[in-house]
Amino acid sequence: MTTLLPIALAALLVGALVAVVLAQRRSAAALLRAAVAEARAAGHARCLGLLAEEMQAPGLALLGLSARLGEAGHPVAAEARHVLRLADEAKEVLAASAGPRCLAEERVELAPLLQEVVAAVAAQLGQGRRQWRLAQDFSGICVHADRRALRGALAQVLARAARLTREGDWIDLRPVVTSETLAIVVEDEGLGLGAADLATGAVAAADHTRGLSFGLAVARSLLEAHGGELRLEAQPGIGARAWLLLPGARLLPG
Predict the structure, then answer these.
(1) Mind listing the pLDDT tens digit for each residue in 197-214?
(2) pLDDT digit string (tens) for 44-89?
(3) Packing angle between helix 74-97 and helix 217-225, nearest 10 degrees?
(4) CATH no. for residue 200?
(5) What is the pLDDT of residue 145?
(6) CA-to-CA distance for 198 and 207, rounded, in angstroms?
(7) Is 21 within a domain?
(8) Cys-Cys crosslink for 87: which of 49, 55, 126, 128, Cβ 3.0 to 4.6 Å?
(9) Alpha carbon distance 171, 250 (integer Å)
(10) Considering the domain boundaries, does residue 237 fall inside one?
(11) Residue 14 within any structural domain of the chain
(12) What is the count of structural domains for the chain?
């Protein structure tokens, strides 16, 4: 009996060690599977994001071309809006699944950034010309922000304004600076579609309008990452006004 006790203890010890090793292996395998799944998800997200960006440019170009075709351009405009709707839905899926954004903040001059975004959106419209008017007040305004993220938010808002306006319509950009906030205000002469897309992300089509109510989840999330927000005002038959708001603390000396 005395001889068997050490053997039993040794067996128990070996069994415990084997259990620990097996548990560690299972844990390592689970971590590996999780890492592989995360890498695949990230890859799918990148592909979806690239696809959404690639779809937006031809969609806007087709929308611009439809204005030149007159009555014959209605089918082209319908297909353009369909492509743009799919691009925005893809972006909304990405925005909904994205985690907290990490900002690479730097000094950003607003005037050159706005000129860059306007030029990009105007180029995507192709033959569909819009009248862009940037207030001189932007000159000298600098903010501490992630340039790429701010550019993305502006591009979404300006592309929406372009979609909801006709050939030759005006789109105005002006700053509003208070003690608490800096607002980049975008005003257009469209039909003033409602702000439902900001609340629900739903896409609603209407035959009598010049555009669709596209979601702005991406722009909103980019501004919220800076401590700001996005507001939209609309007056049917008059136009729309978007407010891209940033905290006043982000203003830098000129």
Answers:
(1) 444 333 333 333 333 334
(2) 666 766 677 777 777 777 777 777 777 777 777 777 777 776 776 6
(3) 40
(4) 3.30.565.10
(5) 94
(6) 21
(7) no
(8) 55
(9) 26
(10) yes
(11) no
(12) 1
